[in-house]
């Protein structure tokens, strides 16, 4: 088949080599953006008088009918036409004849592909932001329903101090808010038009880059044509923001997996988000959470592949840059679905509140309370820490807890300890008294939820 760039060539191409060079198996996902970019380009060519109005109208007509076919799912692509740009141009020729050849005036596939990628990511990032917002909403709601749900807070995965489950949810709310901010800030660097940078050096045609950028809704244009066609920072940034997002989702998934284990039994996932085993009839596995934890690996991988592809690339366009696409598409699909799954999974999970609270009764997560109690009565904190540490050691030997020690025994150790100690040792009191800003105190958590609601409302 005749190549659109075939003029200079004498030898025949070979199908298997063509297939290696083709990007159409994946960049067909840019079809819509490619047509949008071409429509803006041709309108600019007419406005600047580079093409006549009639020529432009014919091309616009052709592009619109390709767009309709795409929407109807009847647009076909072939490997012979290499990539999305050449496939669409071929269709344009079929639709309107030789005038189709004028569309590529003052443009190269190099600025064309970069434009498509900018358009694609701008849409994707806006969608990601909406999904993060929905997930933050779910986290807030789960928090609000569980302000007085008590659970052990952990450090080193060891019981540390009791906390409110809402506080735990709000920690993730904070992470996701930062993720959203990061994606939002990245838009500034995505929202730039490379169209008109041409192959690398600009063009001799009197094009109007600002006009095509405006038609495409871009806020600014690349100031250097070499930079415009070779920049993939905006994709790296997307992959990096996505990696951080996936890391957060993965941490929550890890906790979910632990919480629904037999040992914890803190939560139960609905059947929709679980799967069974083909051999063990009793199994209900948290597959979706495990998959999201696993998929964080491929998103990190996509970031590292592109970093590696770009390292050492001379300016301007090199075919290596075609390798920017699969990781970007894969990451977009992965994070968008992961966010949907997370929202559904958290929203529908049920909590075994009694088990969670009981886990804070049969443990030493109130040891800090006793130390603080003594410090409040004037004992230097270090000394208080030492006394309580010894008590914990004795208790573990006897198989009892701090709340099981009698008042007489306590007073033998130090008369500073009085009858109110038992109230102090209760996990509810431990939480209640943590009034410091951002702490787990019920009042603090309520305030954090209110702040969260106000922020979401403002966005
Ligand atoms: N399919 C190519 C890519 O994705 C389009 C740009 C081709 N440019 C070129 N000079 N061969 O990067």
Task: Write up what this structure looks like.
It comes from Enterococcus termitis. Residues 7-301 form the Fumarate lyase N-terminal domain. This protein has 459 residues and is mainly α. It has three domains: 13-105, Fumarase/aspartase (N-terminal domain) (Fumarase C, Chain B, domain 1, Orthogonal Bundle), CATH 1.10.275; 110-358, Up-down Bundle (Fumarase C, Chain A, domain 2), CATH 1.20.200.10; 367-458, Orthogonal Bundle (Ribonucleotide Reductase Protein R1, domain 1). Helix content is 61%, strand content 5%. It is built from 19 helices and six strands. The protein has helices at 15-21, 24-27, 31-47, 53-71, 84-96, 109-145, 165-190, 209-215, 225-230, 233-259, 287-310, 325-348, 353-358, 367-376, 381-398, 407-413, 421-425, 427-432, 442-458; strands spanning 150-155, 158-164, 192-193, 220-221, 267-268, 350-351. Strands 1-2 form a two-stranded antiparallel sheet. The chain has a two-stranded parallel ribbon with strand order 3-4. It has a two-stranded antiparallel sheet with strand order 5-6. Strand 1 and strand 2 form a beta hairpin. Helix 6 packs antiparallel against helix 7 (165-190), helix 7 runs antiparallel to helix 10 and helix 7 packs parallel to helix 19. The longest helix has 37 residues, at 109-145. Residues 23, 27, 83, 109-110, 113, 317, 319, 321-322 line the site of arginine.
At the fourth level of CATH, the homologous superfamily of the largest domain is Fumarase/aspartase (Central domain)
CATH topology of the largest domain: Fumarase C, Chain A, domain 2
Rg on CA atoms, Å: 31 Å
Order of helices and strands: HHHHHHEEHEHEHHEHHEHHHHHHH
Class from helix and strand fractions: mainly alpha
Q: Could you say what the CATH architecture of the largest domain is?
A: Up-down Bundle
CATH class of the largest domain: Mainly Alpha
How many individual β-strands? 6
Task: Give the integer mean of the pLDDT values.
Answer: 96
| DSSP helix fraction | 55-70%
Termini gap: 53 Å
Q: What is bound: which ligands?
A: arginine
Number of helices: 19
Q: What portion of the residues fall into strands of 2 or more residues?
A: under 5%
Task: Enumerate the spans where pLDDT stays under 50 for 5 or more consecutive residues.
Answer: none
- Main sheet? 2 strands, antiparallel
What global shape is seen?
A: elongated
Number of domains: 3
